[in-house]
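Bumping my old thread because nobody answered last time. Still need a sequence for this structure:
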């Protein structure tokens, strides 16, 4: 059994591919995350971006995170908040053009930031909503 220091960290970053896929990758130049969080987000993003965003937006709301992680966590929280207050569960209007453009301008330095577009933000949001719906439905039938 391996013992880890409580202060052990892992250098990870979120990045966008030219096709707009959000993924979690090791990055020696990135800000480090505590090992326990790193393991959880790596596992979540290994499933898909929607699962990773759901993990970020639900598990780390009150936690200080490096800028890239905080940006995507806040993005996820925006969607999760809208889902929680929506009159028709699981159906929310997409963010308006100004909001999307502001989100693009506010993205911190990250690999692939140049690929970020309104369409990619909407796709990431849709993946998060899809994953949220899948979790809600599976919880309803337990």
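Sorry it took so long. Here it is:
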């Amino acid at each position: 059994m391996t013992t880890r220091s409580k202060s052990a960290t892992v250098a990870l970053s979120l990045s966008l591919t030219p096709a707009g896929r959000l993924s979690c990758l090791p990055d020696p130049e990135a800000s480090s995350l505590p090992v326990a969080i790193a393991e959880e987000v790596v596992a979540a993003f290994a499933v898909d971006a929607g699962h990773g965003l759901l993990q970020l937006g639900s598990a780390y709301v009150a936690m200080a995170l490096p800028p890239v992680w905080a940006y995507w966590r806040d993005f996820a929280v925006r969607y999760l908040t809208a889902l929680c207050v929506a009159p028709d569960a699981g159906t929310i209007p997409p963010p308006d053009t100004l909001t999307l453009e502001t989100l693009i301008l506010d993205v911190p330095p990250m690999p692939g930031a140049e690929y970020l577009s309104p369409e990619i933000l909407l796709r990431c949001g849709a993946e998060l909503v899809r994953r949220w719906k899948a979790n809600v439905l599976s919880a309803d039938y337990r």
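The helical segments are 35-47, 49-59, 67-85, 97-106, 118-140. Let me know if any region looks off to you.
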